[in-house]
Amino acid sequence: MNKIKALFHKNKKIDTEQKIETITSNVPDTRIVEPEIVPLQISAELETQDIPPTSENIMIPSQSDLKQPIQNSPTSLHSSMDNDDDDSNLSLLSSDFASEYSYGLSQDESEINNLSEDNLFSEQLELSDYKLIEKIGEGAFSKVYRGKPLENSIVAQNYKNVAIKIIKKDILTLEDNELVEINGEKHKSSNRTSTREQVLKEVALHKQVSPGCKNIVQFIDFKESSSYYYIIQELLNGGEIFNEIVKLTYLSEDLTRHIGKQLGHAIKHLHSMGVVHRDIKPENLLFNPIDFIPSPQRKFRKSDDPNTKMDEGVFRPGIGGGRIGTVKLADFGLSKQIFQTNTKTPCGTVGYTASEVVKDEKYSMKVDMWGIGCVIYTMLCGFPPFYDDKINILTEKISRGEYTFLQPWWDEISDGAKNCVSKLLEVDPLKRYDIDEFLNDPWLTTYDCVPSNKDKDTSSSSKKRKTKQHRRRVLFNQFMDNDVLYSPAAVAMRDAFDISNAVARIEEEKMLTPVYGLSSLAEDETASFDEEQIKEEKRQQDRQQELENKMFHLKLDSSTIVKRRKQKLNSIP
Ligand SMILES: Nc1ncnc2c1ncn2[C@@H]1O[C@H](COP(=O)(O)OP(=O)(O)OP(=O)(O)O)[C@@H](O)[C@H]1O
């Protein structure tokens, strides 16, 4: 049994607990942060947007405002309102109906009015325009709630339900080594430069890229109170693609294409605006659920265990498969703007020649293509392309692009899929697919299944709908297998993605460093060889140190996540 494969599959007996234990500590996550847009620019950017003229829609406060926090007076920033039903052609469930299955709660409007004192979350006290209904997710420094805009509000005209990401301010403004409680655990803080600037940068970028792409989770509103930031977004009822991979073990080529294409459209939109996402992973892909249609005849791969492999169901081109309909990219916390769309000038840089700028932009964007490659590889076989339980070896493998199409799991996967993956996981960024090449890849643009009339949406018939409802209930229960979602294998897969993305970002920075990177053309050519050698040795040492620091933090993050997930699992009745 191959060790790597074993690590990522459930029901295979291996000691993954021990592997996870090697990366334990009690220091919280430190994101790799590059605040590129200063608060003033953010404010200017946000100010130009269509903000409904209400008394509450005031500008994000300046740094000086921050020193005198506003008590219970959230600032607000609405996005242009997009229609909630933009993917009605894909989703066979109404969003309310889907929510019922995803979160098991009634969507009755009375939900808001009936909330007793017990239902009140502490974050609610400083939020007046939205009602927090239930917690649906958790990030390293945030909680995400399903919420409802207050009746008669402008947002309520477009959205019945929203997702509200809440970041507690004191978590982001700590001195080094100060103790802080994050989601119930005490942690020693590390040196976080990401404070309000980071949050505002995320908000500004998210707001900027939201319009015009249905494969990006829509930004709706931003509020800031004395203790919290509230980022209000479109609610995606299905949850993370990550969970679907873990539950189904791997996805069919058609379903992988379906997700890959939508991810590709999101990235094309971002890149056309000069924005690089830099954190593409299955956890950041959310989806709206569709009807599950069981396969009339199950097909298994040689490597499947027919007793445990869950049915992915029938795939319908243009609609989806499994429960997965529309897929949207989320989490702009690590995104970076390379150039502004109107000017095409790079952000924060001057003095580059045009060709270098173009090369640098292209290079920077290639980091997302690498991310797409990792996601597609993982969806096709169920484990990530790069893995090793020793972080230094893992980093080496990623930097060198050392991955294989492991037997027997890749035996039945088409050559077209392998070709597409290898074009994305190409070490040389200049040879790596760009987004247009990816979207035109021959494998991506064909389907194995042929659409037939009977596969088209017939769910308008209420009789059929009722029988489907029952089936969905049964299936939904199966999908809620938390043991699988929080298993060591699933945690290891999350970690592998985090590390892979961090290494890719570091490689990107390295490439853009003068002398070694693409910007070398701009470097002073008169510098002597000796000076360059000394400089390079220093750079190498710095990079090594930086990588070690980042890897160290990633190790710590993992333990935080492991503990938090265990805690979450225990709290599930
Ligand atoms: N719009 C949304 N609709 C539905 N669920 C969401 C939405 N946004 C976030 N979530 C859920 O909340 C989780 C955490 O959100 P998010 O990734 O934005 O937080 P984060 O603090 O950036 O996380 P991290 O930094 O750990 O990656 C997501 O993985 C997802 O399960």
TrEMBL record:
<keyword id="KW-0547">Nucleotide-binding</keyword>
<keyword id="KW-0808">Transferase</keyword>
<keyword id="KW-0418">Kinase</keyword>
<feature type="compositionally biased region" description="Polar residues">
    <location>
        <begin position="59"/>
        <end position="75"/>
    </location>
</feature>
<keyword id="KW-0723">Serine/threonine-protein kinase</keyword>
<protein>
    <recommendedName>
        <fullName>non-specific serine/threonine protein kinase</fullName>
        <ecNumber>2.7.11.1</ecNumber>
    </recommendedName>
</protein>
<dbReference type="GO" id="GO:0004674">
    <property type="term" value="F:protein serine/threonine kinase activity"/>
</dbReference>
<dbReference type="InterPro" id="IPR000719">
    <property type="entry name" value="Prot_kinase_dom"/>
</dbReference>
<keyword id="KW-0112">Calmodulin-binding</keyword>
<feature type="domain" description="Protein kinase">
    <location>
        <begin position="130"/>
        <end position="444"/>
    </location>
</feature>
<feature type="region of interest" description="Disordered">
    <location>
        <begin position="59"/>
        <end position="91"/>
    </location>
</feature>
<dbReference type="Pfam" id="PF00069">
    <property type="entry name" value="Pkinase"/>
</dbReference>
<dbReference type="GO" id="GO:0040020">
    <property type="term" value="P:regulation of meiotic nuclear division"/>
</dbReference>
<dbReference type="GO" id="GO:0034599">
    <property type="term" value="P:cellular response to oxidative stress"/>
</dbReference>
<dbReference type="GO" id="GO:0005516">
    <property type="term" value="F:calmodulin binding"/>
</dbReference>
<feature type="binding site">
    <location>
        <position position="169"/>
    </location>
    <ligand>
        <name>ATP</name>
    </ligand>
</feature>
<dbReference type="GO" id="GO:0005524">
    <property type="term" value="F:ATP binding"/>
</dbReference>
<dbReference type="InterPro" id="IPR011009">
    <property type="entry name" value="Kinase-like_dom_sf"/>
</dbReference>
<keyword id="KW-0067">ATP-binding</keyword>
<dbReference type="InterPro" id="IPR008271">
    <property type="entry name" value="Ser/Thr_kinase_AS"/>
</dbReference>
<dbReference type="InterPro" id="IPR017441">
    <property type="entry name" value="Protein_kinase_ATP_BS"/>
</dbReference>
